[in-house]
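stuck on this:

***
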Amino acid sequence: MLVFIAIVMVVLRGISRPSQAISVKHKRKFCCNLFADESSMVWGKHKQNIYIAREVLSMQPLLDNDNTYLKFIERNSWALKHFNNYEMTFPKEYPSRNLYRSPFIDLVDNLLCKFQLNYMKKKKTTEITTKHFIHFNKHDHSKEILREYKRNLSSI
């Protein structure tokens, strides 16, 4: 998983947005808060709700090797049920590509991964951080948002 190299690239290019920034000056910057590799693409059943569906469907991939983005959406097709007007067509099969993996790049990524996970241990709150899936969500407001959504839905 090349997550940590991707994070470094985004930060070095100056296109990352600070986690709490919502100002106009940060309008065209990325908030890299979700990383998943192909071994961990499906959201757990306990998190499959309209809040996470919006997160899944509004995601914009920085890198899309081997149709990974389409595979991610397809494996999380439950999210489409929450948004009937969101249309997506998937290929019947994905062409197989043998992508060259550099042992050096994998080594660097693994070292950066260990460093980052160790660094985050002390600061971790509600973030999900594993080698194959990362969701930076320090201030998880999903319960309040879902509660308000259900309240508004019941008043219709």
In short: The chain has a mean pLDDT of 75.
